[in-house]
Write a sequence for this structure.
């Protein structure tokens, strides 16, 4: 790979266009040199690995602006194109890719390479506008919120009123998107972090959180009767809501209070354990609008496949996450979901780990007698020995995966000119679940990101759509896109009322979901080779965290998984080792640049600490 994170990665706009082109080309990579086979001994055999990532299919991209006007436009901040004399085509491609990627020698991704809109390279990412959250593990007092309280001031999300909310959206051209391409950080997989989920707990425990900053998701939305509306979540939201009558407010609060400790009242749900959650809701004297809010926007479960117990568990999880860091249960990492794997790479690099980009692997070398994997051979013909090998599913060849049945995820990414629900504030991070359009079709999860998340340029929104696949991604998701957005071109849209946000650019693709595959399904894998999956279709990250911990415990059953790292001053180095500070990879939180007094007073930023009662 030329980038960190595999299918968890984030790209600039030009980087994503390169990724699209790469995945639309179906040609396989042939071995130019077979010299590496001379490294294989008589008592050894090889397991060849796949030369091309086949986890992405049906990639279709569409531009609804004038592409011709962007032909000669270069991305701002990109290096000028230099003539290549006597270089092969492959070398030319490598030179182009180096503009987008950190060098292979650096195991530590550079945080400063991405600059906020109004910040210099020495300022922290949180120096820009927006309500950002830095998760740390210091034992300082923190407010906690139960259902009976509104979100604490510590995590409260307040954005400045928009001065142009009543005006028409600014016209954004395709050439502007290309020019401002480095403002975009577009995730291949769309997820949010539950504030009390396994990943947040792991980030705090391992101190990896020092390398990332987060923004609260500000709104939970619902799509009902052809309209998008905001869903009240906390007690304050419920009683301030103008959508609900006073009777409905009491009904909703009574049901949500029951869900928080439903295990203590089995008599109220045990008769419906074999029913769906949707059927159970009809017995609770809830109005149709309340049933819709709970099913699709709070529990966020399927209307037909989710049991009563699963629905109650999902609702309780949602409610327990309210108020820890904000008025919704969710956090989003600044610069995109792709920052999370890079954060773990940074921590790994500080303590000697090596991450090699553009360094492919030819095969696994297996000892015939013991059946264990002894080494790998890379594309340079270099043999690297190890005791354990962890392989992402996409690297395994078809001969190993003959008995594997994969699921698929349908994905769409849109760049739009305004929000699906305009309010006084432009800086909103919203999550919306759109119920199935047709019977048997899946619900679609929509996450809309504003520019203060550092994922898109000013005056645009980045919209992610995700659902389990039944057809191609475009067939699954375009009906939902048409319900929410205007797909007309720029010239066609000029003669229409701007009722819906206009899509400026879109891409659809299917991604393999290997999260449910059992290791025994792979043919002929040695016992010391462990397979990890790519992203799953769930909103949170619990599956990936559980899988990582399971693999670690199988390899090192007596060791703690992701323990807190030692303080730099407590580390004792050998004489031939270089401390991280001297190598430029400081592990001290004090090295993080501090904003000036003027910057601190001009932004709405939140530092969220670990609760005292969680120690």
């Amino acid at each position: 790979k030329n980038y960190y994170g595999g299918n968890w990665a984030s790209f600039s706009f030009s980087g994503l266009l390169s990724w699209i082109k790469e995945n639309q080309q179906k040609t396989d990579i042939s071995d130019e040199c077979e010299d590496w086979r001379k490294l294989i001994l008589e008592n050894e055999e090889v397991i060849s690995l796949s030369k091309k990532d086949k986890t992405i299919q049906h990639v279709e991209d569409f531009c609804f602006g004038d592409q011709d006007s962007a032909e000669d436009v270069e991305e701002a901040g990109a290096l000028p194109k230099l003539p290549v004399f006597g270089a092969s085509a492959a070398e030319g491609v490598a030179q182009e890719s180096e503009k987008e990627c950190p060098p292979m020698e650096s195991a530590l991704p550079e945080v400063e390479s991405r600059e906020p809109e109004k910040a210099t390279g020495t300022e922290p990412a949180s120096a820009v506008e927006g309500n950002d959250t830095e998760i740390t593990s210091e034992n300082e007092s923190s407010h906690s919120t139960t259902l009976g309280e509104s979100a604490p001031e510590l995590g409260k999300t307040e954005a400045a009123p928009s001065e142009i909310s009543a005006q028409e959206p600014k016209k954004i051209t395709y050439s502007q998107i290309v020019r401002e391409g480095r403002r975009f950080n577009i995730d291949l997989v769309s997820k949010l972090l539950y504030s009390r989920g396994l990943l947040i707990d792991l980030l705090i425990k391992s101190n990896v959180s020092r390398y990332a900053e987060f923004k609260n998701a500000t709104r939970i939305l619902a799509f009902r009767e052809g309209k998008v509306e905001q869903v009240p979540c906390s007690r304050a939201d419920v009683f301030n809501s103008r959508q609900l009558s006073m009777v409905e407010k009491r009904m909703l609060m009574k049901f949500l209070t029951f869900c928080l400790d439903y295990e203590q009242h089995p008599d109220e749900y045990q008769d419906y354990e074999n029913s769906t959650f949707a059927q159970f809701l009809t017995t609770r004297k809830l109005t149709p609008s309340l049933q819709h809010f709970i099913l699709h926007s709070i529990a966020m479960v399927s209307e037909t496949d989710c049991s009563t117990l699963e629905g109650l568990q999902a609702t309780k999880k949602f409610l327990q996450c309210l108020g820890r860091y904000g008025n919704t249960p969710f956090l989003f990492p600044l610069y995109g979901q792709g920052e999370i794997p890079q954060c773990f790479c940074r921590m790994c690099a500080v303590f000697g780990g090596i991450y090699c980009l553009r360094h492919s692997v030819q095969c696994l070398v297996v000892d015939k007698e013991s059946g264990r994997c002894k080494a790998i051979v890379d594309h340079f013909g270099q043999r690297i020995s190890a005791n354990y090998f962890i392989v992402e599913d996409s690297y395994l060849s078809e001969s190993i995966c003959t008995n594997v049945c994969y699921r698929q995820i349908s994905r769409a990414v849109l760049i739009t000119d305004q929000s699906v629900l305009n309010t006084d504030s432009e800086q909103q991070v919203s999550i919306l679940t759109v119920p199935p359009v047709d019977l048997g079709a899946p619900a679609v999860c929509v996450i809309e990101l504003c520019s203060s998340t550092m994922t898109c340029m000013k005056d645009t929104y980045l919209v992610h759509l995700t659902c389990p696949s039944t057809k191609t991604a475009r067939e699954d998701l375009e009906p939902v896109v048409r319900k929410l957005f205007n797909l007309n071109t720029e010239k066609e849209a000029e003669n229409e009322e701007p009722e819906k946000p206009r899509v400026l650019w879109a891409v659809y693709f299917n991604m393999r979901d290997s999260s449910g595959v059992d290791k025994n399904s792979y043919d002929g894998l040695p016992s010391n080779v462990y397979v990890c999956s790519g992203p799953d279709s769930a909103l949170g990250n619990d599956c990936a965290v559980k899988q990582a911990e399971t693999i670690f415990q199988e390899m090192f059953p007596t060791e703690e998984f992701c323990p807190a790292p030692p303080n730099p001053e407590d580390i004792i180095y050998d004489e031939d080792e270089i401390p991280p500070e001297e190598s430029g990879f400081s592990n001290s939180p004090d090295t993080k640049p501090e904003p000036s007094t003027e910057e601190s007073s001009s932004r709405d930023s939140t530092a969220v600490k670990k609760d005292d009662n969680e120690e």
